[in-house]
From TrEMBL:
Pfam families xrefs: tRNA-synt_1c, tRNA-synt_1c_C, tRNA-synt_1c_C2
Positions of the Glutamyl/glutaminyl-tRNA synthetase class Ib catalytic domain: 34-328
Catalysed transformations (reactions): tRNA(Gln) + L-glutamine + ATP = L-glutaminyl-tRNA(Gln) + AMP + diphosphate
Annotated protein name in UniProt: Glutamine--tRNA ligase
Family per record: Belongs to the class-I aminoacyl-tRNA synthetase family.
């Protein structure tokens, strides 16, 4: 069994949630030969952040207890399921760094066995075919606080039921004309025990079984039995299934397994501003409100991957969130924190100016000529025609940089800095450039002195005239303090790039509250802003999917679909600081 799940983050104690406590105890008592879990997605959409928690838990348990975790497609509903979803779910689980045991499983591959067990239940007198209309069934189920009414078909003989179930299977009933129900208790305070439906008639092809079947098992019947078939020991699911557990236990008990699986429920993951309803996510895609399932604003695994999120960061996030029975909302900031953590030591640094303002260095020729005469320059520099090439590390940590290597940054007579780094009338506490604070260090190069700014007719600053101090390349000047550091890019040798700045898709804290028909009105118009940036040449050569830190801006990824060296496109993964309220 390969161990792909990392250990808990160093600053976190050993994982010891209530589920792990149960499994640990089961292992200590020798109750099972091996711990077996499963991740059971229904292939009716793409996986999202909520599923990531379930994946980390189920695969994590198997890894930590030397057990196995199956990937099982719960494909009992042919109406909504598609091969496209199956393929993407597999890709997503692997990308998250987990390995399922053996081949992927399908609930549909157990249809024959599930059918035979249904026959067994009929023979035991534990199930019957109900020919009431769906409406009658609904009404006669009663309601909370009001007992249901027995179906007139409840007392039919075993033989009658066997014959009717045969007819169901043979296609003699139209959709909805007959169902197989468990015979439990129509007066149970738990609605799930009021003779739940086991099988329904549905004349519909299935993506795995074709037209073999026109009856399909219900999820609540198929799930415990699929678990039992696979020898699952701990069937972990979300809290909304707590009320279904008595039926889960009823099914495995009636079929008579010596070592039945057990169901345990934990609180689902809710993250502020994040929509985790498959139905609504699907609507966003179908209505063209996003560019697709992998739109970088989507909380799908596909979207987060394209956004540049790392699997390490997502696993770290799930570890920090932990597992409990208490419902709550996790702050989106924690997700970003985990991403920053995982990117800090891996992303190469580069400079990109998102809102360029031209700076002309009036003493450029003299200054660079002076540099070349320095005996022991602290920065490797090479003068080629009008370009001073500065060799700088890609990462401030020397050990990491030994792997990443250096890059060459062109310094030229004209450079650009970010507009926000020069203010004519700066707000209080402003530490960057202004007429009152004319000196600043240019990251990776000189200290610059602004002599003058030029404005257009409307009074906007359009250019700065500046001088550099030749002695400050990699050195601090003597006798004066320079407060800030800003980033810059050569105006002539920088490469134009499209940079996509992402923000929350919904400004509402709880997008679950948004009605599915109002999604369009509620989308944050600022969730995607595109700027034309100028970036240092090392970025243009980035491979698609490579992640970078744009110094002082944040972490970015070369877009996996649209980036090309002749047309660089970067997505913002996360800004450097927590800008989120
Ligand atoms: P639905 O069943 O309504 O289509 P679902 O989100 O339950 O949606 P499944 O494919 O059935 O989708 O989910 C697979 C597994 O992921 C289930 O075990 C489910 O409990 C779990 N899961 C889904 N959403 C979350 C969440 N927000 N947090 C934790 N686990 C989740
Ligand atoms: Mg589900």
């Amino acid at each position: 069994m390969s161990k792909s799940s990392p250990n808990a983050p160093a600053d976190l104690p050993e994982k010891n949630d209530f589920i792990r406590a149960i499994v640990r105890e089961d292992v200590a008592q020798g109750r099972y030969d091996e711990i077996v879990t499963r991740f059971p997605p229904e292939p009716n959409g793409y996986l999202h952040l909520g599923h990531v928690k379930s994946i980390c838990l189920n695969f994590g348990l198997a890894n930590e207890f030397d057990g196995l975790c199956n990937l099982r497609f719960d494909d009992t509903n042919p109406e909504a399921e598609e091969q496209e979803f199956v393929d993407n779910i597999k890709q997503d689980v692997e990308w998250l760094g987990f390995h399922w045991a053996g081949a992927p499983r399908y609930a549909s591959s157990y249809f024959e066995q599930l059918y035979r067990w249904a026959v067994q239940l009929i023979e035991q007198g534990d199930a019957y075919v109900d020919l009431q209309t769906p409406e009658q069934i609904r009404v006669n189920r009663g309601s909370f606080g009001q007992a249901g009414i027995d179906s007139p078909y409840r007392t039919a003989s075993v033989d009658e039921n066997l014959a009717r179930f045969d007819d169901m299977k043979a296609g003699k009933f139209a959709n909805g004309a007959a169902v197989l129900r468990a015979k439990i208790d129509m007066a149970s305070p738990n609605m799930n025990l009021r003779d739940p439906v086991l099988y329904r008639v549905l004349h519909r092809e299935h993506h795995q079984t074709g037209d073999t079947w026109c009856i399909y098992p219900m999820y609540d019947y198929a799930h415990p039995l699929s678990d039992a078939i696979e020898g699952v020991t701990h069937s972990v699911c979300t809290l909304e299934f707590e009320d279904h557990r008595p039926f889960y236990d009823w099914v495995v008990d009636k079929i008579g397994f010596a070592k039945p699986p057990h169901q345990y429920e934990f609180a689902r993951l809710n993250v502020s501003h994040v929509l985790t309803s498959k139905r609504k996510l699907k609507r966003l895609v179908e209505d063209g409100l996003v560019s697709g399932w992998d739109d970088p604003r989507m909380p799908t695994v596909a979207g987060m991957r394209r956004r540049g999120y790392t699997p390490e960061g997502l696993r770290d996030f799930c570890d920090r969130v932990g597992v409990s029975k208490a419902d709550g909302v996790v702050d989106f900031g924690l997700l970003e924190f985990s991403q920053r953590q995982s990117l800090e030591d891996t992303a190469a640094r580069a400079m990109a100016v998102l809102h360029p303002l031209k700076v002309t260095i009036t003493n450029f020729d003299q200054a660079v000529a002076d540099v070349m005469t320095l005996k022991k320059p602290s920065v490797q520099a090479r003068l080629e025609s009008d370009v001073l090439w500065l060799t700088q590390p890609k990462h401030p940590n020397a050990e990491i940089n030994a792997v990443l290597g250096d890059r060459d940054i062109p310094f030229t007579r004209q450079i650009v800095i970010d507009r926000a780094d020069y203010e004519v009338t700066p707000p209080e506490g402003y530490k960057r450039l202004s007429p009152d604070n004319r000196e600043i260090r240019l990251r990776n190069s000189y200290i610059i002195h602004i002599d003058e700014h030029r404005t257009d007719d409307a009074g906007n600053v359009v250019e700065l005239l500046a001088t550099i101090d030749p002695k400050t390349l990699g050195n601090n000047p003597e006798g004066r303090k320079v407060k800030g550091v800003i980033h810059w890019v050569s105006a002539s040798h920088g490469v134009p790039a499209e940079v996509r700045l992402y923000d929350q898709l919904f400004t509402q804290e709880d997008p679950a509250k948004i009605d599915i028909d109002n999604l369009a009105q509620e989308i944050n118009p600022e969730s995607l802003r595109v700027v034309q940036a100028l970036v240092e040449p090392s970025l243009a050569n980035s491979t698609a999917g490579a992640r970078w830190q744009f110094e002082r801006e944040g972490y970015f990824v070369a877009d996996s679909r649209d980036h090309a060296p002749e047309h660089p496109v970067f997505n913002r993964i996360v800004s450097l600081k927590d800008g989120f309220k």
